[in-house]
């Protein structure tokens, strides 16, 4: 399990831990851990390497002074830009500043124009951490713009300056944040480093626990996704089985002119191991899918939805017929995936939401931010401003497991648990990838995965497939949803092995 801690929880842990340690011990440990990370980034070339250290007015700046002193003692050519504040400073920060002043590090005025054009080999961002209160402006903003224009690695201390550590948004309005290549975060990992704008600003994240007693860490409802949370359900197959052993998936969708969506969902369902896959068309059914003749095409009317796990929504449209069919599907005592138009219909019709709330079998909703905004009766901006809160609220309101898609997809359970996914890339921002995800989730449910693990596994596999394709040179530009399908099969089998 990889827990994620809110700023408030981090503050509590730090307060109790600091109370048991000599003054400044945590800052010294943070500085040592960050200096080790910096030296690793400089590799063998650290002697005489020009390093720029930005030190802010608070304890994040204190960490930066500790790092600067270590790097100077290691022989790097350290330049410190100290953005001092007017307020009181903590004694441990004062001591760290004295260490930096006593070292070979050079202090220069915090001037953005002195950053460009220099052969920096590393920038250490110690401007702001979890104490950021306002958008970066003035000198701080100019320094951030200048380092963001550099080509060298940037190591952010605790949090990339300018980023909200809880939500992953750039503190605004008109704010900016350091786009770090690496972040070393202290005490515990933080949700804002992994969702919304977090992935674009934190780069690769490592956690420095500062040797704090694990007993001081409270249990947290928020975790980072990982195969440890669901891999046990990817079982190698016994010989004595038949297609019925792996369940039926029915895709309800395909209104006139939107047949591609259920086809993608159905293909994904088969390639993720579903025993059978039916395409149930709200419009005139296709005779067959020539590219995947294994898919059985049916008119939705008359189909027995109690005989399958249904993936409702791909290309379903918003007709009265669609509403009628969705009521049938909601009444079936089988696990269910709700995507796309099914979610839009839910947002429009209270009877559908009531039917969902009264179900006994689990349901999985897979909204993108706009579909989530409609269901929450809010704006897409509000959803993206606090994705964790949006996913948690929606899961509780619907009584369903919710997959809030986007950079750092957030999976929420009705009981308040939240998981942020770490796989995937901008190649997924293309038509049809949502249909593939819905079909994949349906297949895992049909094979008996519990709903929570099916949601976690589907999101993880979907992103990992996209990452594998990009690593092999396919995309991210121009990656197509259909290409994900066979790669998902490969990833699922790798997991089962
Ligand atoms: N808590 C821990 O786990 C550890 C903390 N360490 C490091 O300390 C920071 C948190 O330090 P803190 O002093 O609370 O906050 P920051 O250093 O992030 O900065 C807050 C100061 O900056 C001022 N501020 C805030 N926003 C702005 C802004 N947009 N522009 C200018 N100045 C700003 C703020 O002043 P106010 O005006 O808001 O009063 C504060 O002075 C943590 O991130 C760790 O790096 C320990 O060293 C390790 C354990
Ligand atoms: K920082």
Automatic annotation (TrEMBL):
Domain annotation YjeF N-terminal: ranges: 10-218
Signal peptide limits: none
Entry's cofactor comment: Binds 1 potassium ion per subunit.
Alphabetic keyword roster: ATP-binding, Isomerase, Kinase, Lyase, Metal-binding, Multifunctional enzyme, NAD, NADP, Nucleotide-binding, Potassium, Transferase
This protein's record includes keyword NADP: yes
Residues binding K(+), per UniProt: 60, 125, 161
EC numbers, comma separated: 4.2.1.136, 5.1.99.6
UniProt cross-references to Pfam families, sorted A to Z: Carb_kinase, YjeF_N
Superkingdom per UniProt: Bacteria
Keyword Heme in record: no
Positions that bind AMP: 405-409, 434
Oligomer status and interactors: Homotetramer.
Reported function: Bifunctional enzyme that catalyzes the epimerization of the S- and R-forms of NAD(P)HX and the dehydration of the S-form of NAD(P)HX at the expense of ADP, which is converted to AMP. This allows the repair of both epimers of NAD(P)HX, a damaged form of NAD(P)H that is a result of enzymatic or heat-dependent hydration.
HAMAP family: NADHX_dehydratase (MF_01965), NADHX_epimerase (MF_01966)
NCBIfam families: yjeF_cterm, yjeF_nterm
Protein name per Swiss-Prot or TrEMBL: Bifunctional NAD(P)H-hydrate repair enzyme
